[in-house]
Design a protein that fits this description.
Elements (H helix, E strand, L loop, with lengths): L2 H4 L1 H27 L2 H22 L5 H12 L12 H37 L11 E4 L3 H12 L8 E5 L11 E5 L4 H6 L7 E4 L7 H18 L4 E6 L5 H6 L4 E4 H14 L3 H9 L6 E6 L9 H12 L2 E6 L7 E3 L12 E6 L12
Parallel strand pairs: 1-2, 1-4, 2-3, 4-5, 5-6
Antiparallel strand pairs: 7-10, 8-9, 8-10
Helix pairs in contact: 3-4, 3-5
Length: 365
């Protein structure tokens, strides 16, 4: 490999960096022009230059550098008083600069304030573009999504995780500095504004304003759009009818939750086994009790039977291993594995515990 070919990647990276810098400078310049800030700065600059030269001419004891300092101090209404004109002509220049400077400074301050207020208002109304990365995108807003958001914020792992909400509503529904709101239907345009290409997880709930069939059909179409724009994002979708599971699977949804099946299953189990729903709620609720954690198999447990891991984690960490997730995100989940199942390095454990198990630390006595 020649010296020239070795330096090529660095050259390309430097060129891309220069192009990005040029783009940012051009964007800032357009912003200053659009908000008339550039014009105001030019007027203030010209005023400072003219007043500096005029004061230096009529005030022999004041140098051009001191005159420039005096002009800046005067036009910004700071008024240190270290330099002041003594001749009638100099004082006339000062009076002119004071009155004109106050007006220009007020206009400049009002322009900056209006830009900031407009930016804040656009964010509240969901009209801005998001710049989050590795964030969670929430599609639709209803009482279920509010509970999901609430659970996220109670869990220490996602308490400060940036999230983006896409919903067809007038204003941001909750006060959350780490929740970015985008107003509108879930489509290509709103997903681009949500910076979907950099998102880590996407949650798609059904639109409660629709009947069951069109509601599930909309979820499928939304999933197709999301997967086509960012196939690496982990997509979790909610359905009403299990007949649409195959459609969501073809759309490459990572996890599919059929709300009717979950609720009817809980009700039937509650009738058959009284009190079982309390156990499920205890596991799923982040506010109190036990929670579910997913973690890689500790190195010390690799190639050991499942029953040994079950016993050791209960004894040392007060946790119960409920299942084993084989391989990566698309691997099979084995609930209550056979006691002789040998744990692999690529496996993950689904553990129920009050606190996140730390395999490097023994439980407190």
């Amino acid at each position: 490999m020649t010296k020239k070919s070795r330096s090529l990647p660095f050259t390309k990276k430097r060129k891309a960096s220069d192009q990005y810098l040029g783009y940012r400078i051009a964007a800032i310049w357009k912003f200053l022009e659009r908000e008339n800030i550039l014009r105001l700065l030019c007027i203030i600059g010209v005023l400072v230059i003219i007043s500096s030269f005029a004061l230096a001419i009529v005030e022999p004891e004041i140098s051009i550098h001191d005159a420039w300092w005096w002009s800046v101090v005067t036009v910004t209404t700071v008024g240190y008083g270290d330099i002041s004109p003594s001749t009638p002509a100099g004082r006339l220049i000062a009076i002119f600069l004071m009155f004109l400077g106050i007006g220009l400074l007020a206009t400049f301050s009002a322009t900056i304030a209006s830009v900031l207020v407009d930016k804040k208002l656009k964010e509240e109304l969901g009209m801005s573009h998001c710049t989050y990365e590795n964030h969670i995108v929430l599609c639709e807003w209803n009482h279920r999504m509010r509970s999901i958001w609430n659970e996220f914020r109670y869990d220490y792992r996602t308490a400060l995780t940036p999230m983006v909400l896409i919903a067809d509503m007038e204003r941001k529904p909750v006060e959350d500095d780490n929740l970015f709101f985008i107003q509108g239907q879930v489509d290509d345009a709103t997903l681009e504004r949500a910076n979907l290409s950099k998102a880590k997880t996407v949650i798609v709930l059904g639109d409660d304003r629709l009947e069951d069939t069109p509601r599930d059909a909309k979820v499928v179409l939304t999933t197709l759009t999301i997967e086509s724009m960012n196939p690496s994002a982990y997509t979790i979708v909610e359905l009403v009818n299990d007949a649409y599971i195959k459609h969501c699977e073809r759309a490459n949804a990572d996890e599919i939750i059929v709300s009717s099946t979950v609720s009817s299953g809980l009700i039937s189990q509650a009738a058959l086994n009284h009190g079982i729903t309390k156990v499920v709620c205890d596991i799923l609720n982040a506010h109190y009790g036990n929670r579910l954690y997913k973690m890689p198999v500790p190195k010390s447990m690799v190639d050991r039977p499942f029953v040994e891991a079950l016993t050791e984690i209960k004894r040392e960490h007060e946790g119960i291993v409920l299942a084993v997730h084989q391989g990566g995100p698309g691997g099979e989940v084995i609930s209550n594995p056979n006691e002789a199942y040998l744990l692999k390095d690529s496996d993950s454990l689904i553990v129920m515990a009050r606190d996140s198990p730390n395999f490097g630390r023994k439980k407190k006595s």
